[in-house]
Amino acid sequence: MKILIAGAFGNFGREILRAAVAAGHKVTAADKVVRPVDFGGFTTRTIDVQDRHGLKGIAKGMDIVISNVGLTTPHKSLSHEDIDFEGNRNLLAEARMAGVKRFIYISLFRADEAKKNNPLLYARHRFEKELIESAVPYLIYRPTGYFHDLANMFRPMVEKGTGRLLFNARALINVVDTREFATYIIANLKAGQGVVDIGGFETYSYKDIGRMFFQAAGIKVHFKRIPALFMYLQTWYARLRKTGQHPSLAYTRWALTHDLVSQHIIGTRPLEEYIKSLYP
User: Which of 38, 43, 92, 120 has the highest local Cβ count within 10 Å?
Assistant: First the structure.
């Protein structure tokens, strides 16, 4: 099949790209920045999802559009509303005009519960609603999170020698390996329309996960508990100062206090194996 992958060169996007190419599909990889990868067999296109005119015709001739588009780093002048919602809506408009057979969207677990004070999740929720109400056949995936998300959280703590966890936070999570999830997506391109939660086969607390990181690095485990109010004030200050960090802090605070455990489980790679691979 002819597949357009938007957001193809981020951490997860390139795994979708790898899986699609390996499965023999004709793939166009689109992103704002085209980065080198260790495989070929696809064409590239540089896009800005905010530029509706620049996207014109991008989905023409495609069977499937897979969107992994989202704002992934703090930005002072761009918002999740701009990219996660408006940008994906621009892609959807092109997909609709091109008459694609399916639009696959990578969202986030529990996005349907999002509130406005969690801008990252709320923007995903708004686009999910837009996609569901469109005339385009759709498939929405809601992963609980990825292995590398935990690495981004805990590796800096390991480097400092101290882990920080919210006081009284006992949330659980079952994250998934990106390569296994990407393979699953490509193997199920013809799955029925709907919304699918995705999680890994192991469920841990954040303290358990942090302990694995410290042990893999050969460092004595040491955690400090911080009050939830501290993180709330940190989030409030970032919003007041317009540093661009408010959405990611708000999402992290929410994630640390809510269970992110999907009953739909995929994958076989243990989280601990991934963590140990980071500290050879």
Answer: 120
